[in-house]
């Protein structure tokens, strides 16, 4: 696992076996290999290139650096990196994206302009349009056929749910015996 800010529960996380001091978003090129922030608003989609603002401080490493180092120590570095640096991976993935989106500018142009916008060729998307136009003819898959704020079905499941013998749902994080914090330097 990684942790940008080294929060108190990081070493005790139920998922993480190795916790590294991760470079935060402004320290990384492309927010860990996802080179952009993407979203849509109405019929406009956009992608924002997230370039590195400052170098990582102290011993912080990016996710790619940490996982590459782990792969190296496990003897599978070449299979993991395929011989590419993080930026080379981003350029490679960007070229694959350009095959699907021919109007997407080349990597260096996109990096320089910082944003790419594209209107939906289908026009403005309206969620559940058929239902909104005619709810009687186009019911939803809920028991009532309508949008449900409260679900009787889910309430019944929650009220009658029985866990198998020995299973517990712990609302608080528990520490795992034997968990060690390993720092990659």
Structure description:
With 185 residues, the chain is an alpha+beta fold. The protein has two domains: 2-125, no CATH class; 127-162, no CATH class. It contains seven helices and five strands; from the N terminus they run E-E-H-E-E-H-H-H-H-E-H-H. The chain has helices spanning 30-33, 63-73, 77-81, 86-100, 107-113, 129-133, 152-160, and strands spanning 2-3, 20-21, 36-41, 44-49, 115-119. The strands form two sheets. Strands 3-4-5 form a three-stranded antiparallel beta sheet. The chain has a two-stranded parallel ribbon with strand order 1-2. The longest helix is centred in the middle third of the chain and has 15 residues, at 86-100. Residues 11-16 and 181-185 have low confidence and may be disordered. It comes from Enterobacter cloacae. One of its GO terms (molecular function) is oxidoreductase activity. Its EC number is 1.8.5.3.
Provide the descriptors you would attach to this structure in a database record.
185 residues, alpha+beta, 7 helices
């Amino acid at each position: 696992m990684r942790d940008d800010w080294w929060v108190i529960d990081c070493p005790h996380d139920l998922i993480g076996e190795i916790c590294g001091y991760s470079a935060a978003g402004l320290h990384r090129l492309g927010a860990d290999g996802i080179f952009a922030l993407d979203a849509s608003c109405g019929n406009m989609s956009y992608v924002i290139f997230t370039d590195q603002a400052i170098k990582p401080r102290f011993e912080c490493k990016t996710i790619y650096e940490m996982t590459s180092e782990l792969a190296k120590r496990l003897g599978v570095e070449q299979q993991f990196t395929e011989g590419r640096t993080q930026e080379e991976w981003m350029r490679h993935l960007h070229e694959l994206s350009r095959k699907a989106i021919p109007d997407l500018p080349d990597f260096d142009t996109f990096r320089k302009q910082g944003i790419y916008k594209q209107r939906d060729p289908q026009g403005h998307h309206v969620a559940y349009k058929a239902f909104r136009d005619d709810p009687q003819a186009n019911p939803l898959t809920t028991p009532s056929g309508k949008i449900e704020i409260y679900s009787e079905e889910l309430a019944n499941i929650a009220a009658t749910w029985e866990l198998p013998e020995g299973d517990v749902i712990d609302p608080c994080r528990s520490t795992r015996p034997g968990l060690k914090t390993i720092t990659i330097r």
